Amino acid sequence: MELALHSVQRKAFVLGVGVLLSFSYIAVSSKLFLAALFSERAELTSLRRAVWLDPGNAAYRDHLGRYYAYVARDPADSLEHYHAAVQLDPHSARFWFDLASAYQVLGDIPHQSWALARAIEADPTTPDVAWEAANFYLVQGDKEKALGEFRVVMANDPSLADLAIQYCWRLEPDVDQLLRNVVPAKADAYITFLDLLMRKKETAATAKVWAAMMANSEHFELRRVYDYFQFLIDQKDVDQARTVWQQATTRSGLTAYLPSKNNLIINGDFRLNVLNGGFDWHYEKQQGVSLTLDPSELHSGGRSLLIAFDGPGINHAGIRQFIAVQPNTAYDFSAYYKSGEMEGAGAPHLVIEDAYTHAGLYDSDELKQTGFWKSATGEFTTGSECKLLVLQIKRVPEGSPIRGKLWVGDFRLVPKQQS
Predict the structure, then answer these.
(1) What is the DSSP string of 327-378?
(2) b/e map of 318-354 (b: 16 or more CB within 10 Å)?
(3) pTM for the full model?
């Protein structure tokens, strides 16, 4: 429909309405703009002006309440403004928390608990809300509610999970209860719990967390397995270390890194990539030593490990492997080596020791002065308490300068009756 504006009066009327609406919009916008400016100033007069200019803004009422609570240190006067804020916006957990804090300072525990419950109801899954609620319940001695809120924290904020599980362990140092009722069934939560228990050397408890991880389908990084494996080795829990390695490699599609009845040494021909963890080879940088997987020099298949020595103070090659064995059992060991241009006193040796007592079980001849592949073999019997060996390449004598290259490969260890 077209509006006919033929008369001067009609044109003036429409123009007047337009101007009035424009001025009204400008006035409202200016009012809201000024309110926002005043609300940013931590002064009582400015905050009051912000509330006067925009009385329906819950945040401004909350700011004014916070001024009375923290600047004027008058929590009683803050209540009026906090109540106004939650009435204007009852869905803000932050406003309910501010109200609960004022009641806490006033010692009004029933109202504090009421306001806190409303905060949780307004935002039940946000970690910051759950964290504050958990700490309130801690102060009140309500263990069950505190644990419930810490569960929310762990489920939603990995950055707070470590501190949350520490509080939970202090409240309820029972791994079964925490796994059942508190720790979320998530890989990162289990890892956090496992880390805490390892720090506390709660070896039996870590096994229960590991079992929960295996029952959960979520993926976790293999380096976490290496950390737990090393913890178990350090705690001399070889049986659990074997279980962990078997389960982790099977789950990760790495069954080639499991020992077999034909060879207890994993990746003995270096055909596979070196994992640097678990029951595979471990390596670390040594001054004057370099390690390389060499596909051009090999004895029978796969690759060889090239160890280049060049310097003084060399004690070992920086590579080793843990081997799980049985006590009071005879074993046959074999490996192949080739050296080139080896100079200096002494030479590298293949050495097998009890990983805990360091009792020597096998020490090869010097691995030098051979330009062709040669075998190093021997047999030994483990002691009555021996369950873990360590295979290394040591320099004998230690410390003196050495230069040259050594290739090793085709490592094999089997019980004597199977050799």
Answers:
(1) TT-EEEEEEEEEEEEEEESSEEEEEEEETTT--EEEEPPP--S-SS-EEEEE
(2) bbbbbbbbeeeeebbbbbbbbbeebebeebbbbbbbb
(3) 0.80
Q: Nearest-5° angle of CA 268, CA 274, CA 276? A: 115
CB-based contact 229:277 (threshold 8 Å)? yes
| Alpha carbons 372 and 3: distance in angstroms, whole number | 106
Instruction: Determine the Cα–Cα distance for residues 398 and 314; give it in Å rounded to an integer.
Output: 6
100 contacts 133 by C-beta, under 8 angstroms: no
What is the DSSP track for 139-195?
HHT-HHHHHHHHHHHHHH-HHHHHHHHHHHHHH---HHHHHHHTS-S-HHHHHHHHH
Strand bridging mode 388-396 / 402-415: unpaired
C-alpha distances in Å from residue 275, one per residue of 191, 249, 363: 20, 11, 26
Question: For the chain, how far is it from start to end, CA to CA, in angstroms?
Answer: 103
Torsion of CA 312, 315, 319, 323, to 10 degrees: 170
Per-residue pLDDT tens digits of the chain, which is 419 residues long: 455 555 666 656 555 555 454 445 454 455 445 446 545 656 667 666 766 677 778 777 787 778 777 787 878 888 888 888 778 888 887 888 888 888 888 888 888 888 888 877 877 778 888 888 898 888 888 899 999 999 999 999 989 999 999 999 999 999 999 999 999 999 999 999 999 999 999 999 999 999 999 999 999 999 999 999 999 999 999 999 999 999 999 999 999 999 999 999 999 999 999 999 999 999 999 888 999 999 998 888 789 999 999 888 788 899 999 999 999 999 999 999 998 888 877 789 999 999 999 999 999 999 987 788 999 999 999 999 999 999 999 988 777 788 899 999 999 999 997 65
8 Å CB contact between 61 and 52: no
Tell me the C-alpha distance between 385 and 383, whole Å. Answer: 6
In the chain the domains, ranked by start, together with CATH numbers, are 30-257 (1.25.40.10), 282-418 (2.60.120.260)
Sheet holding 289-294, edge to edge: 289-294, 304-311, 402-415, 330-344, 374-381
